[in-house]
Amino acid sequence: MEAIRLAVLGLNQGAKAARDAAASERFDLAAVAGMGPQAQAVAAELGAPLYEDYQELLESVVLDGVVIALPNGLHLPAVKAALAVGIKHLLVEKPIADTEEDARMIIDACDQAGATLLIGHQRRSSATMLFLKQFIEAGNLGDIVGIQCSAIYAKPDSYFDIDWHRTTGPLLINAIHDVDDLHYLTGMRVKRLYAAARNSIRGGEVEDSASIVFEYAEGPTCTYFVSDGVPGPWGYDLAAEEMHFINCRPGENSLRVFGTKGSFGLPNMDFYRYGPGQYGWTEPLLKTHYEVGRPDPATATLEHFGDLIDGVELVPRCSGEEGLATLKVVQAILKSAESRSVVELDAD
């Protein structure tokens, strides 16, 4: 089978995908697009032709697929440009877009062109997430009653040297991952939510912490806290040992799912339950620990994209519609935080 000719547009968020493609015998990194010293350094490191204008790249290079890792507001024009030259496989970095309107236009454009659209919510390719999803679907937890989730990180000062990191808070950067995790793991959709956001840590123009209560159409509730300015190990990326550029602190959970038959902590992978014929706090609570692999989920997402291009898999792990559903929830969180009111969502 011939190597998949791939281009990566955007070498800030897209540098990881470019490096993974260059390191894989399955892909031929045909070209990259980006501007500035970082883009020049990544292109030189990988020996890939660099275009400052992604439109010129798309019109000049024959491709099997494209990774779009540009700023969110540029996703729609880049998708249209790729479709216009006949590209049929697109991996678009999360979130799918800045607005629901742009997201809908991206989805419709890909549908009309008969193109495969994969949204880069990479945790859907995490071994821990895949395990828990199957564990829940098998009925091991019984009926889900509630969920606790957190995304707690202390981002270094240098992180905020990038302009858009100062104008986009952890709700759109971090919480969007966790909202998508909950959609993926449970299959449930948020019906109602209330959010309280603060910027008391750095005093910036966007939030640096927020607490949210979700009510799901199927009945369960979820409490969620996110911050990018708090030391602590209770964020998935810190605890899961999957992202190698982060100084990990394994052994803690960022997500707890509570069911009528038992409870599960992730990513520590512990299941708590009572034995047959036993129930209640006077009985011994049993713990089962599961060991699963910890492959890099971003790398696994690119491999999944390759499977879609080669026809090995036919269904994207995160479709455009699923990416839009996640975006709608995060936009509702932002609306609730600003208005200090409960927001209702269409959970269909």
UniProtKB/TrEMBL annotation:
What Pfam families has UniProt attached to this entry?
GFO_IDH_MocA, GFO_IDH_MocA_C3
Indicate what this protein is called per its UniProt record: Gfo/Idh/MocA family oxidoreductase
Q: Which GO terms describe its molecular function?
A: nucleotide binding
Q: Describe the location of the GFO/IDH/MocA-like oxidoreductase domain by residue ranges.
A: 132-264
| InterPro entries on file | Gfo/Idh/MocA-like_OxRdtase_N (IPR000683), Gfo/Idh/MocA_Oxidoreductases (IPR051450), GFO_IDH_MocA-like_dom (IPR055170), NAD(P)-bd_dom_sf (IPR036291)
Domain (Gfo/Idh/MocA-like oxidoreductase N-terminal): give its ranges.
4-121
Gene3D superfamilies, alphabetized: Dihydrodipicolinate Reductase, domain 2 (3.30.360.10), NAD(P)-binding Rossmann-like Domain (3.40.50.720)
Query: Which superkingdom is the protein from?
Result: Bacteria
